[in-house]
Amino acid sequence: MKIAFCGDSFCAQITADTWPYLVAKEFNGTITCKGLSGNALFHSYEELLPVVDESDYVVFCITDPHRITNRYRLPMTLRNTEFLLDEVSRGEGDWIAKEYSITNKKLWKTLRAGTLYFNDLMSFEFHNMAHIGILMQIDNHMLEKEKKCIWFNCFDISTKIDGKWEYIPKSGPIIDTPLFSISQREMKHLSQKEQDEFLFDDNRKNHLNRRNNKNLANLIIDIIKNDNFNPREIKTYESN
Fold it and tell me: How far is 97 from 73, CA to CA, in rounded Å?
C-alpha cells in the first residue's frame, strides 16, 4: 500500500508515534507525500501531484485559506511571516535562506512584502473564494483518478465560512472536528501566555499528544479496513 498525506503541519511529521506513521505501519505501507508546515493549500497540492497516481489512499489536512502562495514556497501565515521577518532583520535568517534556497536579500524583501500584503492589501473574501475553488479542483481530480480519500479540517475556516459549509468533499468522508480544536483542548490547563508560546514552539508531534495521534491513526485505519469511502461527516474522538 502507498498512502499520501497532503496538508500542513498537522501531517508534516512522519516519525514514530505520529498518526501518519502509525497508519503506514499498520498496513506495512509506504508514505508518498507529507504535509508542509505553515504552507498554503496550493503548495500542498503541488506536493501531491507528482505522486497521486502511485498513491492508493490520500489523506487531506485542509489548512486555513489565509496563507500566501509565493514563488519560494515560504510558509507565510501572518504570524509566521512576522516572526521570520524579525529573525532576518536581526541577522539570524541564514537558516531560513538555506532551507528555502533563497538569498537573504530576497528573503527579506519577500517577507516584508508579505507583511504589507497581510496588513494593507489582503482581501479575505478573495482568499476564501480562491481556497474553495482549489478545494473543488482537488476533489474533482481525486474523483477522476478514482482515489480513496479521507479529509480533515485543520481549522474552523478550512471548509466553512461564518460557520456554514462552503464545500463538502465528494471523494471521501470528512472528519467533523477541526484538528486545531483537538490540539487546543489538549492545552486547556495552560495559561493563555503558554498557549500563545506553543504557536512558535510546539514540541508535540503534528500539534497533538501521543494519544490523539493514536486516535487519528485508528480512525483512518478503521475507514481503510472497512473500505467505506462514501462522502459523509464522521465523528471523531480525542484524549486530553
Answer: 12
Q: What share of the chain is helix, strand, coil (3-state, %, to 5)?
A: 45, 15, 40
Cell of 127: 482568499
Query: Residue 137: which residues within 8 A CB-CB, separation 6 or more?
Result: none
Q: 485508528: which residue's cell?
A: 218
Axis crossing angle, helix 104-116 with helix 78-89, rounded to the nearest 10: 140
- Residue 237 is predicted with a pLDDT of 58
Reported pTM: 0.93
Q: Which three cell numbers stand for residue 190?
A: 495552560
Cell numbers found for residue 108:
527579506
Q: What cell numbers appear for 71 in the block?
A: 514563488
Which pLDDT does position 239 carry in this prediction? 47
First and final CA of the chain: distance in angstroms? 31
Which segments of the chain does DSSP mark as H helices, in order? Answer: 19-26, 41-48, 78-89, 94-99, 104-116, 124-145, 179-186, 192-198, 210-226
